[in-house]
Amino acid sequence: MGLKISVERTTAPKQKPEISQLGFGKHFTDHMFIMEYDAGKGWHDPRIVPYQPISLDPAAKVFHYGQTVFEGMKAYKTPEGPVLMFRPFKNLQRLNRSNARLSMPSLDEDLVMEALKQLIKADEDWIPSEQGTSLYIRPFVISTQATLGVAPSEKYYFMIILSPVGSYYEEGINPVSIYVESEYVRAVTGGVGNAKTGGNYAAGLKAQQEATEKGYSQVLWLDGVHRKYIEEVGSMNVFFKVGGKVITPALNGSILDGVTRDSVIQVLKHWNIEVEEKTISIDELVEAYRNGTLEEAFGTGTAAVISPIGELNWQGDKLTLNGGRTGPLSSRVYDFMTGMQRGTIEDPFGWIVKL
Amino acid sequence: MGLKISVERTTAPKQKPEISQLGFGKHFTDHMFIMEYDAGKGWHDPRIVPYQPISLDPAAKVFHYGQTVFEGMKAYKTPEGPVLMFRPFKNLQRLNRSNARLSMPSLDEDLVMEALKQLIKADEDWIPSEQGTSLYIRPFVISTQATLGVAPSEKYYFMIILSPVGSYYEEGINPVSIYVESEYVRAVTGGVGNAKTGGNYAAGLKAQQEATEKGYSQVLWLDGVHRKYIEEVGSMNVFFKVGGKVITPALNGSILDGVTRDSVIQVLKHWNIEVEEKTISIDELVEAYRNGTLEEAFGTGTAAVISPIGELNWQGDKLTLNGGRTGPLSSRVYDFMTGMQRGTIEDPFGWIVKL
């Protein structure tokens, strides 16, 4: 690993927010991790410092050419138990795949894991332990070289910030209504849709905004080539239960290789529920709905874990799933995943890392 | 217009770089323009201040979700003449189209024009007047709200920075070799390819890097749906002269509506040269090359104005254009465009704005 992480503790700890006021990604802890990269020198000066603004030249490439990647992870704590993380190395491996796609330097995954441990330890008293709460972890890399030529940056910051977050849903999990998007496209094969980079999220804002105006929570993205194959729902992967079998879009280069997605597939197989990664057309789903075999649908992601879909609007037709209520499989997967993550259900996969 | 621009002059002017050291976007002037936006309040506090770093919370959305837009313009000066700009309102209109696509607040184009004038006036002695030099102008908007929810920001900075730049080419214009990209895709219809946003540039870095490793300057982008229709070259629009007629890809929603592109089309028409905006397949170009009618090709953009293409590599076949030398039409368009922009050739279109 080589590099030693220095630690500067804050002398002015912030007041912690009320649990009821947590929300998502609105409050940040007392410390952050930062490390710099310079071409020819590599990553250097890894350090934990008080959470503070960063100062950048207005010409820094991140402001102009979107050369950024990030990850999202969570740490959990029960009042009596240790701090738990869920498959952190899987996120760090993806972070490096994203780095490669964006022509950014790779990170030493062991060093980043050590940084995560030390940072979370420094802010351990910020981790909420109430049901549905957790510590959201945001590692990210930004390009900081102050030149306007369109080329990979020669300087970067890698940072980790922490945010105590509340339940994504007020009371357990509630189904959301989804608008099937036919005008806007999130990503296309050959692009950066399978990298966790800012541009993918910026590209989705307009469709999300228009869906919200129509009364929908999120959009279901179709592929950019045929405009008929299911890709993601909002910024989550998506699963459908059709005639007793679970299907999810296969990794095709334009959707994100979600850690929750991969975990849910393995959990379903563990339960002997048939699950298939395949190309899924919107027509196939509408047909299943018409003949009564489209039983459930849900999104998967780190923030919400499982987000059941109660309604799909496809070109004005409203497809109500499981009577608009959370389906039994969605509930079962949610309870099992969050139970494992919080340490209240035994983890048969070896996914949980105790800090 | 309403808002008044305040001005704080620097007390420590920087040393200006040697003309031979200018390069592109490496040096910045003594001042910058900044204005802030808050939801419910709108744009406020427009001001010219000494060029300085900006301080942002590490959770600022620009670092995570790529919600950014920018523009590129130039101001020109001859030793004896006034400062000239080229169609600045066309760039400002596109800036607002980009803002709309990225769910960002629109700017008052008259206020921005006034800011441009006052900022360039403040740094007028930074504008180089040597042949091939100019003042590159970079207006940009970044999302600054410090929350991690994926949603349009409620806070933004709009800034303008200025960079004295040298000739894009050492000696006049030289042809570049271009690799026709068949693996990576820049953008797709329904996406953000026609907006000037960071993510489009980040998405192109990997292909550009691999082309460079193969000995090519840039890539020629094909469309993301059929993988056969020409889109852009690097970050420029592209023109081909085939059998005496000039063709350029039609605006299809995934390519940038370039100001230089539009100007070149009008210049060619002014010269009674036939020009057509159309869907152009790579097969059509290869066929024209085989039968000897592919006469010239060039890219267009603010930075290089005209960039002649000497060679196209399509799946290993090398297509040499005009013997690898700058073609007569490319030269003529370059001389006319840069002559108008510098004020040495009369502008018959009313495009030049004297500051």
Give the arrangement of secondary structure elements.
2 copies of one chain form a homodimer.
Chain A: E1 6-7, E2 31-38, E3 42-50, E4 54-56, H1 62-65, E5 68-70, E6 73-77, E7 83-86, H2 88-101, H3 109-122, E8 134-143, E9 155-165, E10 176-180, H4 198-213, E11 218-222, E12 230-233, E13 237-242, E14 245-249, H5 259-270, E15 275-278, H6 282-290, E16 294-301, E17 305-314, E18 317-320, H7 328-342, E19 352-354
Parallel strand pairs in A: 1-3, 10-11, 10-17, 14-15
Antiparallel strand pairs in A: 2-3, 2-9, 5-8, 6-7, 6-8, 7-19, 8-9, 11-12, 13-14, 13-16, 16-17, 17-18
Organism (chains A, B): Cohnella herbarum
GO molecular function (chains A, B): branched-chain-amino-acid transaminase activity
Keywords (chains A, B): Amino-acid biosynthesis, Aminotransferase, Branched-chain amino acid biosynthesis, Pyridoxal phosphate, Transferase
